[in-house]
Request: fold
Amino acid sequence: MMKSDENIKLDKMKNITSKIQNPNILELGVKKGKSTRMFLDICEKNNGYLTSIDIDDCSKILKHPKWNFIHSSDDNFDYINKLIKKDYDILLIDSLHEPNHIKKIFYNYFKFLKLNGIIFIDDVIWLPYVKGEARDNDFSERINRLTFDQIVRIYNSNKESLSLEIDFTGSGLAIFKKKNNQLNEDKKVINRMFTLKNLIKNIYAPKPKK
Reply:
């Protein structure tokens, strides 16, 4: 039986996280708890600890001595920043899938991540949602394109501080690695594809010979 795209991405996160001893993990977005259970399985084996934050009350989905649940919006920084410590190995961003929100929480929680810590961001690829594909959805295509662009802007402005890998499985998974503590404000990546000069080039470009 073939694994779902979601399970393939969970396995990727599990393989990376499992290599860390005594992992301290911060999860933004719990929902039904699939990633929560996966992380707790690692915490049991590797003597780690998981803190999860969700705007919905997910405290009753499970009980575990290595789990702390914070019932709050993950951008309520005045509240949350007093409850967490600056020593996380793993950060999963899987709450509100909206580019401005992702930027806001990326920049806040980055300072709570250890050097060489990993940031996972789920739902960054638009391809499954384009017209004619299985999940054809105009809104999801648009929001994931904007999210992808936001991630590229963050990386492009911080190549000395971050490495970036993109997994295109399903709706995608971005994997950042923190290389140093400096984080610059993101800058727009200039796209020259739609300048007048390039539009004219496309119109008058020679046609390939058959």
Summary: The CA atoms of residues 50 and 77 lie 19 Å apart. Residues 5-204 form a domain with the Rossmann fold fold (CATH 3.40.50.150). The helical segments are 5-17, 34-46, 77-80, 99-109, 138-156, 196-204. Strands lie at 24-28, 49-54, 67-71, 88-93, 113-122, 162-167, 173-178.
